[in-house]
Amino acid sequence: MPVFTGAIGWIINWSGVLMLFNPVQYHGRRVLGMRALAEFLPHKLQEIPGIAQGGLGWQGIIPMRAAKMGSIAVDKAIAKLGTPGEFYQQLEPDKIAEHIVQMFSPQIPELVDETMRREHPQLWADVPPRGKQAVYARVQQQLPSIVRQVTDEIGVHIDQLLDPKLMVIDHFEKHPDVVNRIFRDIGERELKLMINFGFYFGFLLGIPVAILDHTLHQWWLLPILGVIVGWITNLLGMSLIFEPVRPRKIGPFTIHGLFLRRQDEAAEVYARIIAADVITLENIGDFLLNGPRGDRTRKMLADAMGPAIDGAAGPIKGAVRVALGPSKYDAIRAAVAQDAVGKTMQPFTDPEFSRRQSEKIRVLIEARTKELPPEDFVEMMRAAIKEDEWMLYAHGAILGLAGGFLHLAIFGVSGG
């Protein structure tokens, strides 16, 4: 019997780990009347994937809680790792500026032509080729100072333009596979141990079960004890990984959560994933331009470029302003600035450049994560799924019940 309960314990923990991660997206079917019935079910049952939406199915617990994982990751760790300004400085604004100039400079003639043809086609058509070349050259000459002003302006206002919490939550929600990878890569060793310990726990718990079965000779005993064994097996597996948070001496033994023993190693894995997939130059640029504060970013950048464009006009600014009229000149100036905003942000969306700059972010996150108190570190990894752990325990109980009936079917009642 201990060998049998050990095998059931292994299956319980193995399938429990599968339930944590799979499937990444919800899979299920709608059931007629389920939505109405769900309103009368206990709150815990409504949390089962699909129930509240009127269906029966499943989604991995970790991807299901991806948004919550993002929120907790920011509150417990990322917010303590650095301010938006610190992250931005780690991305080296000077190198960003250099990359912008390198990418943007060849596009100056096209940008100026396109804007002038749209805003004042006749005026631009009357400008001789040599005059146009002079305008291109002057704009390109002014470009480094324009770009430096833009990147400086982003740095000054980054705390108002960038919300790491919203950015991380949004990214995790859109990419639950990233959250899965964080848990899998960080806890790979512990997850394997949890599965194997399912057998050891099941084996040990099977000894008193065998004694009770042999003593009492009741057919209903094995299914009931199977429920208890299944529940406890998963509970002990989770406890083995996360508890106790700090080392605790019991006689000659030191007890410490397996996951917590490797905080430094786990911090390196966590930092690598966050820097490569979440807090990247590419994601920051996308949030700045297309996030909820994108309009503010575009206006700020356009306002910053306006005076620089005046500087590029140089000594002919006054004559052009008189020839066009103040309102038309200002319209062209604003149009050039708006068109330039997107182009000056192109390096933020350059994956290769983003990858090179992410190394600085990785180093910062790794160092700060290693410094986190163990309580914050374990909560960052566990809190998002803690409220759903009961589903794993219930799953263990159901499999334990099935194992009890299976044992009865194969071996019958001991001593009966």
UniProtKB/TrEMBL annotation:
The keyword Nucleus does not apply. Keywords: Membrane, Transmembrane, Transmembrane helix. Signal peptide: none annotated. It comes from the Bacteria. The keyword Transcription does not apply. The chain crosses the membrane at residues 6-24, 193-212, 218-242, 390-413. This is DUF445 domain-containing protein. The lineage of its organism: Bacteria, Bacillati, Actinomycetota, Thermoleophilia, Solirubrobacterales.
